[in-house]
Specification:
Rossmann fold, Asp/Glu/hydantoin_racemase, alpha/beta, 8 strands, about 15% strand, four-stranded parallel beta sheet, Iso_Racemase_Enz_sf, Aspartate/glutamate racemase family protein
Length: about 220
């Protein structure tokens, strides 16, 4: 029987790009998507993860376990802290999509710029990087890069403006950092162009997250 991965989403945007990564790296694995795009809305409205959001996510993780998932992939960086807490209450291992990205960033670079289009993603990504640096015994300098207005441009149907604002933010960070981390998986499609613009390594989460899932599945 094929192994099963359940991917839990708080929004719609990453599901199709992530499926392409799964098709490439894990073609024999059954992928099940659990999507509730009201979650990211509630996180944005509250300015962070609420107990209600955590409870609903725990319900999705438990549903994933009940449907036979061998691994659960939490795809949203904004709710990483909820995934951390849920691990104690779910029998199936939970992989956070951005965890491997954070490990590689703090393991390879001393000065890291972090780009996000939402404060609710920027803050937990910075915290994740600090936690991973501490676990590795590393000291890193983190620089915030909030691409203001980019998210509103995207949801307003102006993707070119969204990309331009992110590119501008990356260019502003470039001279003061050794590498750039993209806090949202949906920004992964800009990885190559931002590398060209900045001349710096750019790390994004989807591929590294799926590779972490692959390694875990191989160990089961």
């Amino acid at each position: 029987m094929a192994q099963t991965v359940a991917a839990v989403y708080t929004g719609q945007g990453l599901a199709e790009p992530l499926k392409k990564v799964f098709d490439e790296l894990l073609p024999g694995v059954r992928l099940v998507n659990l999507i509730d795009d009201s979650l990211i809305y509630d996180v944005m409205q509250a300015g962070g993860v609420t107990p209600q959001v955590s409870g609903r996510l725990l319900g999705y993780y438990r549903s994933a376990a009940e449907l036979g998932a061998d691994v659960i992939l939490n795809t949203c960086s904004s709710v990483g802290e909820a995934a951390d807490r849920a691990r104690a209450f779910v029998s199936v291992p939970i992989v956070k999509i951005d965890e491997q990205m954070a490990r590689e960033a703090v393991g390879g670079y001393d000065r890291i710029g972090v780009i996000a289009t939402l404060p609710t993603t920027l803050t937990p990504t910075m915290a994740l990087l600090r936690a991973q640096a501490g676990a590795a015994g590393r000291t890193v300098a983190l620089t915030e890069g909030l691409a203001k207005g980019a998210y509103d441009a995207l949801v307003g149907g102006r993707p070119e403006e969204h990309d331009r604002r992110i590119a501008e933010t990356a260019a502003e960070l470039a001279s003061s950092v050794d590498a750039i981390v993209l806090a949202q998986g949906s920004m992964a499609r800009m990885e190559a162009s931002l590398r060209e613009i900045t001349g710096k390594p750019v790390l994004s989460s989807p591929r590294l997250g799926v590779m972490a899932v692959k390694r875990l599945l191989e160990s089961l």
